[in-house]
Amino acid sequence: QLRLVESGGGLVQPGGSLRLSCAPSGFTLGYYDIGWFRQAPGKEREGVSCISSADGSTYYADSVKGRFTISRDNAKNTVYLQMNSLKPEDTAVYYCAADSELQPIQAMCDTLIGHDYWGQGAQVTVSS
Questions:
Q1: Residue 72 contacts by C-beta under 8 Å, 6 or more apart in sequence?
Q2: Residue 66 pLDDT greater than 90, yes or no
């Protein structure tokens, strides 16, 4: 079964850091744009950061710009989201998604529909 698997979530204090990983099962990430999305309790899922397969270009939501870094290691078939200076409002379930459509990378983060694969989600809780 083709799917994505997230790992690296957990509980962290405000100001702390976490690194999420997204790895595929049954396919190669190198041909896909990859995005991280999150859904906080009572809120809609939103795009956080996306990275292009073609040129490595990236997009960040304003709420995480300067604190989060997305990267991909095609040799390890994994995409990462390094999250620094975490805030309580970053608490959410974080999902990764893969998309094979050729489009500006922000467009991937701006929509929840049409992505080829989703992961099951990883809980991130920022609390003292």
A1: 29, 34, 51, 53, 56, 78, 79, 80
A2: yes
